[in-house]
Amino acid sequence: MNKNIAFLTLAFSFFCLGVRAQSRSTLNFNSGWKFKKTNENVVAKTEWENISIPHTWNAEDMQLSKDFYEGEGQYKKDFDLSDEYKDKRIFLRFEGVGQVAQVYVNDKLVGTHKGSYSAFCFEITYAVKSGSKNTVLVKVNNKARKDVIPVNHFLFGIYGGIYRPVSLIVTNKLNISTTDYASPGIYLSQKNVSPKSAEVNLAVKIENKLSSPQEITIKTTVYDKEGKSVLTKNTNERVTMQGRQRFEQNFSMENPHLWQGLDDPYLYKVVTQVLQNDQVIDEVVQPLGLRKFEFAGKKGFFVNDKAYPMYGVTRHQDRWKYGNALSNSQHKEDLDMIREMGATTIRFGHYQQAEYIYSQCDSLGFVIWAEIPFVNTYTSEEGDNAKQQLTELIRQNYNHPAIYVWGLHNEVYGKTPADYPATLTRDLNEIAKIEDPGRYTVSVSGYGEMERPTNLNADIQGMNRYYGWYEGKIGGLDKWVENLEQKYPDNKVVLSEYGADGNVFQQKEQALLGDTYNYSLPVYPENYETKTHEVQWPIIAKHPYIVASYLWNMFDFATPMWERGGMPARNMKGLVTFDRKLKKDAFYWYKANWSKEPVLYITERRTTERTQQITQVTVYSNTGQPELYLNGKKITTAPQVVDVPVHYVFDHIELKKGKNVIKSRTTKDGKSYTDEVIWNYKGR
Q1: pTM
Q2: Residue 411 annotated among the catalytic residues of the structure
Q3: 184: helix, strand or coil
């Protein structure tokens, strides 16, 4: 017996002792795996390698070029089960496999799942053998398919592998469901939320695999943040052996502590137990954040009747040399940077992201948008899978208070309202409303006209607008918003994407750049991205019609089919580089505008080689009007304030030949802040 199997056997021995005393147990199933690629052209030279989960076989190749491995890989794991499991139900739960998975246990196919981004859970009770070795084999394929969304690798790559955690779940034969689209089996909804009271409905789905109907007690206990029980509800029920059964409890929370976004993300803990003869036979724990969301058009967005600024970013989950096989600490690092910048809302595009991410948003207080990967184009064969993935997204994440909207599609077009994308979007909207009538829905167009056939099939219309990059001039955003305000004053509209690419290795003085750009050029200067955001954020800020906006993107990410801007396989619209090591100038632009943290920042710090002797110096400051020093001498001319009160521009700064030290300083509340850059002017 090898070390991995011996360790797992020992773990199961302790684990089984716990099963007797506990209602259910969940075992980390991420170690001791073997992997190999199995496409015909590589199978002869590929051997099993030892790996642990999370894992992707595209950690680097998909991030470098179109020449990446697309096809099948296999994962295998051996494990022992003791005889304690004879009277238990056993499940394997996968949080994310890219993108089609076939799961075998002891050579029996226990299930197939299509979709890279949602969890799935298969019962393996009938396939395992107690008291002996068992083998699980997972065949994984990330080849783009016409019947699985996304149907191509164009907007982002479909990384192959078991790239999120795997769990083995053991329950009694009467249990809260684990296989209702891999949901927790508990659904918490709320209405009439106010500081005085909140009405809560709890639905629980239960399965009985015993040989007769069972009398049970469903006990729900609500705990406050300090762990004190504040409410208990008991109901007696009879569970037959036929089918999954749904039971409900209703209760009112008096004088509740509300979940108030970033200001006060207060969470209760809801523990739902199934009891027989006063013994707990199953238990599930879920968060409860009591809140009311309202998208009120020009009046803004409200959380519990309080205005909530929707300063938004979007996030792709992958990162350099890791693909999408990320640790919780890496997810947390992303959220910490988003929070540092001052964002209040996040669009997780264009697919369901890690369960840890949504839980952290609950705890941190971000208001978030969750969506499915119905993006870019369509084949007319993906409808069933889109409906499946939307159902999975909603049921798996139903209890997260941070989520305010379900996303149905992004930039998928038809020519008439009867075309496939429009009709499928209407079907998706209906599914979302049946599954979760308490949340908004949104679909997204890449065009600016409201009349497009795929538009207006959800509660909110998102529009992606890249003025100055893919069309028109940077400032064209202003006229577009004004036209919508006049024509459709009552529509709910969000600016779902905007921005421009910026390659930090390519620099050109901003003063030399115009207000439009040819994105087919091989150079994407960071300075143009900065200019785009400097112009467009003030436009957004002055138009309350745009209730929420989401800059694209928080982080650079892989686009394996692209070769643009001197960087193959990369979308560089992020405000932070792909490896998360460098924050671009635009990051500090938003931090100065959005964050309460003090910011003093001189831009174009990587544009060190200067061609213009007479130039501008731009400073972002939310700590008051900055002073500027050039080579130790104070600039006496006051800066110009541009559009927003954090944007300061010093004109007609004359550089000397050679090295120039530019320093800025402010003082606020008795504390001094400084920043410094060095520019080199070679002269003419």
Answers
A1: 0.95
A2: yes
A3: coil
Give the H or E element holding residue 433: helix 420-435
Three-state secondary structure call for residue 207: strand
The label of the residue with tokens 């979760």 reads 436
Per-residue pLDDT, 130: 87
What is residue 5's predicted lDDT score, i.e. its pLDDT?
39
Extract the tokens encoding 190: 């709320």
Q: Which of these, 495, 499, 503, lies nearest to 466 by C-alpha position? A: 499
Question: What was the pLDDT predicted at 132?
Answer: 86
Please report the DSSP string for 472-485 in residue order: S-TTHHHHHHHHHH
- CA 160 from centroid of its chain's CA atoms: 18
What sections of 175-293 are H helices per DSSP? none
pLDDT of residue 42: 62
Tokens at 584, concatenated: 């671009």
Residues of the chain with pLDDT under 70: 1-22, 40-45
Strands 493-497 and 548-551: parallel
Instruction: Tell how strand 548-551 and strand 567-571 pair up.
Output: unpaired
DSSP of 294-331, one letter per residue? EE-GGG-EEETTEE--EEEEEE---BTTTBT---HHHH
293 close to 303: Cβ distance less than 8 angstroms: yes
State residue 12's pLDDT score: 40
Burial of 637 (0-12, 13-18, 19+ CB in 10 A): exposed
**φ/ψ of residue 539, rounded to 5:** -65, -45
Annotated catalytic residue within 72, 123, 371, 411? 411
Cα(506)–Cα(603) distance, integer angstroms: 15
CA 180 to chain centre: 22
Task: Tell which residue, 124, 249, 245, 179, has the closest CA to residue 396.
Answer: 179
Reference 610, options 660, 652, 648; nearest CA is 660
